[in-house]
Amino acid sequence: MTFKNFLKLEKKTSSGLYLDNLTGIRALAVLWVLILHTWAITGSGSVDFNIPFTTYEIGVARVIRMGEWGVDIFFVLSGFLLTTPFLRARKNVSFIEGTLDFYRRRALRLLPAYYSAILALIYFLLYGLGKLPTPAEMLQHVLLANTWFETPPLRGAFWSLPVEALFYVFLPFLIFAASRCKSFHTVFIFLIFLTIALRFIVINTPTIQSKGIFLFSFFGRMDQFSLGAIAAYFCIKHPASPGKGSIILMASIIGMLIFISFIGRRGNLFENRDYFYYFFQTIVGIISAAMIYGAASHSKIARILFGNRVMIFIGTISYSIYLWHTIILDIFVMTNLPHGLTPDNKLVATILYTWPPILIASFLSYLFIERPFLKVRHEPENNSASFISRRPIIFLSLSAIALVALTYASQAIYQINH
């Protein structure tokens, strides 16, 4: 399979818009999250790089520590990419028809790889990777509703999936409301300010005990999705020229580095009740939206940074990387290998141990799980004899039931063996 054929299926988007540079932005986001979690299991020490041909060193631990902002980039990018099809949609498609098709496409994109990762995770949990969820908890996970029951995610990185899922639920209605306004972005600007106000209310109201339900849900990140939607609107209505795109892209990268340095010096914003906590994620979203807007141009700098084959490949399999990396890193920690590494080489050695299997598992997940369902997404009238191809949503529903049943059986096996 040539690289061109590898990407052929990815380019069949519902909006007809596919940009290599934005796939590269996905790679940046997932690599930032990956290096953060890899660094965390090695003890979160200092990381210094020598400047070639000099005696100077650059410390990058602060940049790595902000790797959680990679998820923020994902949220903004989701707002951008998922708003675009609605802005370019055919006028003769009814709201109900378009919304149901949108839900179907998102389910086929999100759930197959997620359910596959859960299936593998149940096996690893049986062998000591962690505590098995109850069948009721597993039902919450497969429905992406665990946040509302204050049930921790099966793996740390999985917390963002219910956030994405709820954004999918609301987006068609937000687009419908925005399209009825005099100015399209009015609704999304309102949501940005509403998010900041709600953060302030939730954090400063003692009677609200479960603050995480808001802060780590769609309602706590509405501003970032909204900024992506606004960026999509301007990208379609007022696309940036290559020169302007380069300037915006470089300014956003420099701005991100400056903001990392600024926030990094303020300590734990939540514990310190720092007023920046109410809107620093909004600022990250603004910078990310500018980066995406700049990368969406035909900028040469954007092509060099994000449109190269390595970044495109990583971005293409980024969803599976996101799902699999914490599983494999946790397995690595369980083997106790990190404790045998010296502080000087711990991060590099951990990368060499874990990143190849992460990439291999992610590539196989993309190839054998994601791609087949991508084909189903793009061929709704598929006449294949395969039940999965003809009834993919029913198959996913049965898969969810099977995961709950398997969890029940696993609980019984675990109790027998212990």
Write the layout of secondary structure elements.
Layout: H1 3-8, H2 20-41, E1 48-50, E2 57-59, H3 61-65, H4 69-87, H5 95-126, H6 135-142, H7 160-179, H8 186-203, H9 211-215, H10 222-237, H11 242-264, H12 280-295, H13 300-306, H14 309-316, H15 318-334, H16 346-378, H17 387-390, H18 392-417
Helix pairs in contact: 2-4, 2-13, 2-14, 2-15, 4-7, 4-10, 4-12, 5-7, 5-15, 5-16, 5-18, 6-18, 8-10, 10-12, 11-12, 15-16
Molecular structure report:
The protein is mostly helical. Helix content is 68%, strand content 1%. A two-stranded antiparallel sheet has the order 1-2. α5 packs across α16. 36% of the residues are buried.
In short:
This protein has helices at residues 3-8, 20-41, 61-65, 69-87, 95-126, 135-142, 160-179, 186-203, 211-215, 222-237, 242-264, 280-295, 300-306, 309-316, 318-334, 346-378, 387-390, 392-417; strands at residues 48-50, 57-59. The chain is mainly α and 418 residues long.
List keywords for this structure.
418 residues, mainly alpha, two-stranded antiparallel ribbon, globular
How are helices and strands ordered from N to C?
HHEEHHHHHHHHHHHHHHHH
Helix content: 55-70%
Whole-number average pLDDT?
88
Residue share in β-strands: under 5%
Radius of gyration, in angstroms, nearest whole number: 22 Å
